[in-house]
Amino acid sequence: MTALLDHLRTHKTPSRWLAALRALVRTDSLWLIVLAAITGILAGLAVSLITFTTLLAHNMLAPGYKRLSGLEHVAPWRALLVPATGGLLLGLWHYALQRHNRHRPVDPIEANALHGGRMSLRDSLIVTGQTILSNGCGISLGLEAGFSQIGSAFGSRIGRNLRMHRADVRLLVGCGAAGAIGSAFDAPLAGAFYAFELIIGSYAFPLLAPVACASLCALAVVHLTGETLPAITMTIPQDVPPLAYPLLAVLGGISALIGVTLMKSAAYAEQVFATCVRPVWLRPMVGGLLVGGLAILSPTVLSSGHIAMRAGLVNPPLFWAAIGLLLLKAAASTLSIGSGFRGGLFFASLYLGVLTGAAFASVVTPIMDISLALCTVAGMCALATAIIGGPLTMILLTLETTHSANLTAAVALTALVASFTVKRIFGYSFATWRFHLRGENIRSGVDVGWMRTLTVGRMMRTQLDLLDASTTVANARTIFAGRMPRYIVLHDGYNHYAGLLESNLIQSIAIAPDQPLAAIVDNDGEVLSPDYSIGHAVAAFERTARPALAVTDKDGRILGILSERYVLRRYAEELERTRRELAGEKHGK
């Protein structure tokens, strides 16, 4: 599909055909749903292909057995050799990319928050390939990072090739992520709300149709290709005792603490690897050896842990077994991330949550007769919410995975407590925490990129009324006789900024005519840089309480002038545009 769109845009196809298609999409939301469905189909095909390729690679660790976390035993030499070899290949791949000065790939959340949905399909294919290599050699991370990356990239590419509005491109990025996650977990509602909560950053009723359509189309493709697992069969309690809810709230709080600890540990592991293993290309190999050593103790730490999670739901382990597996899986995932492997913690967080719930049930059962299945399901939802974010997404994913609709209230309680606790004591999900470590202040996929692209250099007025700072008041009155500008920019003999003067000062009878303009202007050196965003400009006006400020380069040469009134008007216009997009008003028909 993307190749066809490239052909329509760059080859001999008349440009009016592409313009007509673009006009249809912009004026009729039905065509936007069609594009969302196409994006979902591409995402579903990608999920099927990635899953098939990865499971094929798993035969290196366990010939004839594709789901590694369900193994009871793995040959020690394979457990050490395969992850280490995969890590070496990944490290050399990273090294080759760095030598070619490849920029850092943009993920779907960052693309929607800062770049208007713009993603590189080539970079996304690289990320997906690295994710397949990481998971294929048994590293303790999930494939969801590759799923959502490539699905979102398809949506972005379609929107960009059709030169669609910024809001439409962002929506298609969300549709790609919804299709990828919904089909990967066999949970279409969870996939849709994953897009709303994490990728798009808000929910609006007019956006539901395209996002849900993409999720359902992707799921249909995955089912047709047969890359799905059978439904989980487990004994679910028919009701929840009222006294169990306080204990479930405690479980939510404990899950939040474990999630925060895991996220901080991953960042700390990166620092340790950077300090102890200097060559960047060697770090994944060392990490692979360490993860392989843990796999000798328990193969459940291998790969995403999806099968181990399902086994834990059906037959939950006892307290000490649950604690041991929890520590091993958390250590393996932390080492995998810290050493530079590609992948996510989505699948891993579900398994860790099951183990947390099983251990919690073993502790509280002597106090109160509470269902073990209830604790494992609630723990799965709570810990996933703490690490990934998106409580509604995780509630729906848990209910769709376990078919336990009668536990909705209990699951929702643990998810909300976990989400609230993480926000109070930490403030980030795993994805946004990694943005924070890179210096990006992004909390969701809500579009804030306009604040960075709308710079002072784009807003400033370059037609200026300039005077030398040594000019007298009388000469200034003569120069501007019959046309008095509002602001006069003063400069010295080298065209360096010397002050900003309001014209009403030189008209005042209290000012002596022979005074130089430099004597009546208050120049404290407060100026704007053309690289400042609109947010920086608003902050500068609030700090100085001035109606206008000059814009200069780093050497102090005058470039323009910017007024507070104009900045606030543009700021209000952009906020209103963002509000309309968040409310889905642009897409309503």
Task: Describe what you observe in this structure.
The longest helix is centred in the middle third of the chain and has 33 residues. By secondary structure, the protein is mainly α. The strands form 2 sheets. Strands 1-2-3 form a 3-stranded mixed β-sheet. Strands 4-5 form a two-stranded antiparallel sheet. It folds into 3 domains: about 210 residues, Clc chloride channel (Orthogonal Bundle), CATH 1.10.3080; about 210 residues, Clc chloride channel; about 120 residues, CBS-domain (Roll), CATH 3.10.580. The chain has 25 helices and 5 strands. The radius of gyration is 29 Å and the shape is elongated. The mean pLDDT is about 85.
How many angstroms separate the termini?
A: 27 Å
- Contiguous helical run count: 25
The order of strands across the largest sheet is: 1-2-3
Hey, roughly how much beta strand do the residues contain? under 5%
